[in-house]
Specification:
Structural class: alpha+beta
Largest sheet: 3 strands, antiparallel
Distance between the termini: 11 Å
Helix content: 25-40%
Order of helices and strands: EHEEHEEEHHEHHH
Number of helices: 7
């Protein structure tokens, strides 16, 4: 089943051919997500030592002058001069790259509370720049601010048709990085998976 993805229609890129935006990597299937959810450890979140965003180095250079953020927005062209994007969380379009934020689907602070506090700086950097798992997605800046560092028990994308993909992606990331989930998070994930 094809679910809404971030759509990027290049209009004025510096490259000769207009590449499509990098799609969110496909999360695991519903049945695999249910299996993975059963394998996740349920634990109380811990903020000791205290979270600080600068403990996660973001926007590594991927190739040439293109960093992670630019790769999420433009794929192979780093500097869009114009374009049209649609945020998959709420289906809101924008023609301004400046209206986009790159969301860590599982927020950095949520990762910290769930086990990343025990990682090395290199592991946190790899997590913050992961283009392989369904972790980084371009969304409207207002929506990203509204989400903040909330988990799935506290916030879900406004677009209901994206809920299944969102929770499958959440579980994919949590499972790969061996992050814990709290009990409210597990209840929410179980409920949303049941609706897929």
């Amino acid at each position: 089943m094809i679910l809404p993805q971030l759509i990027f229609l290049a209009l004025g890129l510096q490259a000769a051919a207009a590449p499509l935006k990098r799609a969110l990597p496909t999360p695991v299937s519903v049945s695999t997500a249910k299996e993975y959810l059963g394998e996740l450890t349920v634990a109380v979140d811990s903020n000791s030592p205290a979270y600080a965003r600068d403990l996660f180095k973001t926007w590594d250079t991927i190739s040439g002058n293109c960093d992670t953020r630019e790769n999420v927005v433009t794929n192979s062209a780093c500097s869009p001069t114009s374009g049209h994007w649609v945020s998959p969380y709420d289906n809101v379009p924008t023609d301004l790259a400046s209206d986009l934020d790159i969301d860590h689907l599982v927020p950095l602070k949520e990762a910290w509370l769930s086990g990343a506090r025990n990682w090395t700086p290199a592991q946190r950097e790899a997590y913050a720049n992961d283009l392989t798992r369904p972790q980084l997605v371009a969304i409207t800046d207002n929506l990203n601010e509204s989400k903040g560092d909330k988990d799935v028990a506290q916030w879900m994308p406004p677009l209901a048709s994206f809920h299944c993909e969102y929770v499958r992606a959440w579980i994919t990331v949590k499972h790969y990085y061996k992050l814990t989930i709290d009990s409210a998070e597990k209840t929410a994930l179980t409920t949303y998976l049941g609706q897929c």
